[in-house]
Design a protein that fits this description.
By secondary structure, chain A is an alpha/beta fold. Chain A has helices spanning 7-14, 20-31, 41-46, 51-61, 71-83, 90-101, 112-121, and strands at 2-5, 36-39, 65-67, 105-109, 128-130. Chain B is 60% helix and 0% strand. Chain B contains 4 helices and no strands. Chain B has helices at 6-19, 33-44, 51-78, 86-96. Chain B is mainly alpha-helical. Classes of the chains: A alpha/beta, B mainly alpha. Chain A binds chain B through residues 1, 16-18, 20-21, 23-36, 62-66, 104, 106, 125, 127, 129, and chain B through 7, 11-12, 14-15, 18, 60-62, 64-65, 67-69, 71-72, 75, 79, 82-84, 88-89, 91-93, 95-98, 100, 104-105, 107.
Chain lengths: 131, 108
């Protein structure tokens, strides 16, 4: 099972002491052949372009499998975004589309409501982990 | 192995894979015949571009799985109290709807 991180999940992963729920989730991913997956669009939300401020996040970025947003993925994200009532962000929609595109994955986020709605619209059954 | 440690060496190799125009080089490996047949069938059907592409994708994911294990071990080496208990890992697996095989919940 892959652990897909949004910007809140990446920030938690980059913390000096990552939260217990994240570490338990990553242990499950490691034990089941999974990886930490980062939709590349999250980099735009989670970094500043200032190397000193971004150092911890960049270190974890280098430990994550980056997943680019293809045209097909963007189309799925658009469909999910307009299928839900909430005003979900484009980044959240791409994260949800990334989760649904992977064979077995869960999303790790600090803001689960929109992602739950988006994943529900995808009828994917994918789980959300709040950190 | 690099003095920076196995995790850093693996992360650097994977960074180069992700960011650079990497050259390929042929390597010879032996696969179980049914797996080789399956790969050939998928290639013939156009599901995967080539056996090399399929093996590269699978090995890349495998390498990131190993990198996750090394990263967690690095973290616990610095902060041992952060290591989740087997019960916490099993609870997370239950929440995720994932079945852990054998002693997978008993983290090292």
């Amino acid at each position: 099972m892959d652990a897909v991180l949004d910007s809140g999940g990446l920030t938690a992963f980059a913390a000096r002491r990552p939260p217990a729920q994240l570490l338990a989730t990553l242990e499950v991913a490691a034990a089941t052949g999974g990886a930490v997956v980062l939709p590349t669009v999250v980099i735009a939300e989670a970094t500043t372009g200032r190397p000193r401020e971004d150092a911890a996040v960049n270190h974890r970025l280098a430990r994550s499998l980056l997943d680019d947003c293809t045209v097909e993925r963007a189309r799925v994200a658009a469909r999910l975004r307009f299928a839900v009532d909430v005003a979900a962000s484009v980044v959240d929609a791409v994260v949800a589309a990334t989760v649904t595109a992977r064979t077995e994955a869960a999303v790790v986020t600090s803001d689960p409501d929109d992602l739950r709605s988006l994943l529900s619209a995808a009828a994917s059954g994918r789980r959300v982990v709040e950190v | 192995m690099s003095p920076a440690g196995p995790a850093e060496a693996l992360a650097e190799a994977l960074r180069r894979l992700a960011e650079e125009q990497t050259r390929t080089r042929p390597v010879s490996v032996s696969l179980p015949s049914p797996l080789a047949d399956a790969l050939q069938a998928l290639t013939d059907a156009g599901v995967v571009a080539s056996t090399s592409a399929a093996v590269t994708e699978a090995l890349t994911h495998w390498a990131y799985n190993r990198l996750l294990r090394l990263t967690l071990d690095e973290l616990y080496a610095d902060e041992p109290h952060l290591q989740p208990s087997p019960e916490a890992v099993r609870a997370a697996a239950d929440h995720l709807g994932v079945r852990l095989s054998g002693t997978a919940g008993e983290v090292a």
